[in-house]
Specification:
Blueprint lengths: L15 H9 L3 E2 L1 E6 L5 E6 L2 E6 L2 E8 L5 H9 L1 E6 L5 H6 L10 H4 L4 E2 L8 E2 L4 E13 L6 E13 L4 E2 L2 E2 L1 H4 L2 E3 L5 E3 L11
Antiparallel strand pairs: 1-13, 2-3, 2-6, 4-5, 5-10, 6-9, 7-8, 9-10, 11-12, 13-14
Length: about 200
């Protein structure tokens, strides 16, 4: 077996715990979250602390830092709704651009050059260029981690799916055609196109 170096978390400082966690838990799906402020300003930002946590009803989580004002976290606390816009190869550059720091009064959809499409059931818009979008209502927000530098864990329930028909076989999604993008560490991403099958044990 390989020689392993131990890292007691209590002895780690600065960004080291974050670097270890994000370097090992890969690839991470990207929650490209569309939200809107109580004053009606659209916001768009990517979160790689994101995942699906329930199938029936479909529920999703993303985690936003609380260390400084995060427009997304403030918006979902105030409005209680958000969209998830599935990141694929076609929109990866725009997703990356939306990770920049913008002033609270800036419409990030417009700033990064994507189309804000009205949702069907909720107020925040969707990214028109995405192959799939999910409208969600917030069910719970949990403050987790360090009181000053921790995160707000947002739990949302899907109320509408919008999916490009070319991806669909009934309700099954063609994974190769989707061309989803995953987040790694630093500036690294991966394409979810190198697929293989394993038969599930009985």
């Amino acid at each position: 077996m390989a020689q392993k170096k131990n890292f007691p978390v209590s002895e780690l400082t600065g960004m080291d715990p974050y670097k270890l966690a994000t370097g090992l838990i890969v690839p991470r799906p990207i929650g490209w979250v569309g939200s809107i402020s109580a004053d009606g300003v659209p916001n768009l930002a990517p979160y790689s602390f994101f995942n699906a946590v329930s199938g029936n009803p479909p529920m999703f989580v993303f985690s936003a830092g609380r260390g400084a004002r995060k427009d997304t976290l403030a918006n979902v606390r105030e409005v209680g709704e958000f969209t998830l816009n599935i990141v694929t190869a076609e929109v990866a550059d725009a997703m990356n651009a939306s990770s920049a720091s913008f002033e609270a009064d800036v419409d990030e959809f417009d700033a990064v050059g994507v189309t804000a499409v009205p949702s069907t059931s909720i107020r925040p818009p969707m990214v028109g260029e995405c192959k799939a979008n999910i409208e969600c209502r917030v069910t719970q927000i949990l403050d987790i981690g360090d009181p000053a530098q921790g995160n707000g864990l947002v739990i949302g329930e899907a109320v509408q799916f919008h999916i490009d028909e070319s991806l669909l076989d009934g309700t099954r999604i063609d994974q190769a055609a989707l061309r989803a993008v995953g987040r790694h560490v630093g500036n690294s991403y991966s394409n979810a196109t190198d697929l293989f099958d394993l038969e599930r044990p009985a």
